[in-house]
Amino acid sequence: MKTTHAAALLAVPLAAMLAACTPKAPPAEPLRPVRTVELRYDGARDANRYTGTVRARHEVEEAFRVGGKIVQRKVDVGQVVREGDILAVIDDTDYRLALDAARQQAAAAVSQAKQAESDRKRLEALRADGSVSDADEERARTSAHTTVAGAEAEARKLELAGNRLKYTVLRAARSGVVTAVRLETGQVVAEGQPVVTIAAEGDPEIVVDVPEDHLAAFRKARYKAALASAPEESFDVVLRELAPQAAAQTRTYQARLKPASARRLPLGATATLAAERAAAGTPVASVPAAAITQTDGKPAVWVVRTKADAPATVELVPVTVHGYRNDEVLLSGPRAGELVVTAGVQKMAPGLRVALPGAAAAVAASKVAAQ
């Protein structure tokens, strides 16, 4: 009995020693998270991108119709004005003097016309009894007609002087927002010199310059635009006007595009325009340039492979590159709907187990279910 108890006591530390010497199983390798993009051949389009600005369709360059020294400036850039609002005022001293002079000349001309008419009537009465000759009466009649015409001319000059006095006050020709002011108090401006620009707020447009070699493709394209302040929010635009002649300095054609639906755009904002058209020839898909790697010196991409009840893995697949578009590559090879790794491709290895983000995981699950 004692021997059995001793053997049992020796067995316990022996089992512990054996357990300590048994090697532990290595921990499972964690799944490497990856970022992917789904290949879409039907959505691949050639596109050129242009940088432009938001401008109003209707802009008015306001200018004084007379020259002079600015004595008042009533507006600033960004101010909203209504039709008829005062924008600036010119010193009107000289124009008031000119108006007074024209008024005096008009009054003198009227007096002369009245005198000439009286003389004509008297000579006409004297001619009846032969006291004056026909020549004297004819001269009196001509003088009366001349002075009447002179009085009418002086009246027109008086109106012109009055108009020029009114022109010393510059008023807005239309409602809108002030986009440029090129005058200051004390500045002397010439007649017709643009001093204030007013843009209508209701019809914003995106203005871009199109190179001559892009012109044919640009006419056939579909257009999308996005503002620099919100690059992820693109919207459709339509071509409203394309200049028929290239600018002499840049040899580019100015294009003006308006939003396809009513949309408020901040005037002066920077916009990016994408002119897209269907790709010709072999269908291609676009992927970020960071997705491209190499195998045996040829371009390739890492494609995600999925199986039921097993983690996703990656496989290196050769591709054919058809061209480049800004930060994207146009390629063919993998099947449509395949998930291509777009980041960290230098850390991939064949058969590496990966973890897909939510949206990509849903796409992978649907593919497994379809299989």
Task: Give a structural overview.
The chain has 371 residues and is an alpha+beta fold. It has four domains: 32-44 and 283-370, conserved putative lor/sdh protein from methanococcus maripaludis s2 fold, CATH 2.40.420; 47-57 and 200-278, Elongation Factor Tu (Ef-tu), domain 3 (Beta Barrel), CATH 2.40.30.170; 61-92 and 168-199, RNA polymerase II/Efflux pump adaptor protein, barrel-sandwich hybrid domain (OB fold (Dihydrolipoamide Acetyltransferase, E2P), Beta Barrel); 93-166. The chain is 29% helix and 37% strand. It is built from five helices and 24 strands. Helix 2 packs antiparallel against helix 3. The chain is rod-shaped and about 135 Å long. The model is unreliable at 6-10 (pLDDT under 50).
